[in-house]
Sequence to fold (228 residues):
Amino acid sequence: DAGITQSPRHKVTETGTPVTLRCHQTENHRYMYWYRQDPGHGLRLIHYSYGVKDTDKGEVSDGYSVSRSKTEDFLLTLESATSSQTSVYFCATRGLSGTDTQYFGPGTRLTVL
Amino acid sequence: AQSVTQLDSHVSVSEGTPVLLRCNYSSSYSPSLFWYVQHPNKGLQLLLKYTSAATLVKGINGFEAEFKKSETSFHLTKPSAHMSDAAEYFCVVSERYGGTYKYIFGTGTRLKVLA
Fold:
């Protein structure tokens, strides 16, 4: 357990509103990831970070932005939520250099009406 | 590019019988391979990991997986299923990408255990 928390755990919002999800980790891991999980698709990478202020896009980044101003926090923002962004969102971190094991947070269930 | 195929989206077994969850991968390099388990409304928990040290990898809760390079497979097995094994299982391959790693997930296999 890499001490990863996500907030909120559940959120219902309306189309067109901005939404920010927060991932917080206590292990000083350098790498952090945001995924979305949808039935039949497994987990798909939205964005990732390889250090403070260093981020890059994943395979499903359209409509999402991220920020990382501190090692422990990685924020995912939906600028204008759409119903297609209804999903479960997972944050993950990667451990010490030399190991590629990922550790996952408990997830955030987002519903966009 | 790497990819992962989980050959069964659903598997049902009776309690006490063996479990086999199948995973095939494609990779241009020596991959790291993982199995994760997700219980309902929970996050993903690491079951086991292959990183080229040994082809037979033992994980938590009695699970193990064998890396077969010639077959590009990494199937997950357990000799005797327990009711608590009912969950979704994900096979994952990692790929070095620049200075970091990216992870390719299979679409998951939902395991049902019958009493």
About this structure: Chain B has a mean pLDDT of 91. Residues 15 and 70 of chain B are 32 Å apart (CA to CA).
